Amino acid sequence: MGKKRAVLDTNVIISGLGFKRKSRKTVFKIINEYDTSHINTKTDLEIIKEDPKDNFLLNLAVDGNAELIISGDKHLLNLDRFEKIQILSPAEFLQKKT
Predict the structure, then answer these.
(1) For the segment 77-95, what is each residue's pLDDT rounded down to a tens digit?
(2) Running DSSP on this structure, what letter comes out for residue 67?
(3) CA-CA distance, 26 to 8, in Å (whole number)?
(4) Which of 53, 91, 52 is nearest to 72 (CA)?
(5) What span, in angstroms and rounded, lies between the C-alpha atoms of 12 and 15?
(6) Scanning 58, 62, 72, 98, which has its CA 20 to 30 A from the CA of 43?
């Protein structure tokens, strides 16, 4: 059985490369514990109306059979869950995993 799949929002990656220690810890933990490999999407969901460009993360998660999205985006976080996919902030992810 392979690693579980997760989608990591670019805002978390950029924060992790910068100065936010929690985000950096989150990035390393996800990379070590989850499969975050590149996938091509076919799905074109329109769930988030307030900021439609955020829908690409839902598309990635659905097409990649991910169980988790890690993001700091309020539109995604407000969903909390989409289908079987849990949506967590970096802090929530770290809290859950410790």
Answers:
(1) 999 999 999 999 988 988 8
(2) S
(3) 10
(4) 91
(5) 5
(6) 72
24, 17 Cβ separation under 8 angstroms: yes
pTM: 0.83
Letter for the amino acid at 53? Answer: K
Q: What are phi and psi of 90, to 5 degrees?
A: -55, -40
Hey, what are 48's tokens?
Answer: 């988030």
Give the up-direction half-sphere exposure of residue 71: CA atoms within 13 A in the CB hemisphere.
24
pLDDT at residue number 23: 66
Residue type (1 letter), 25: K
What does the angle CA 17 – CA 29 – CA 26 come to, to the nearest 5 degrees?
50
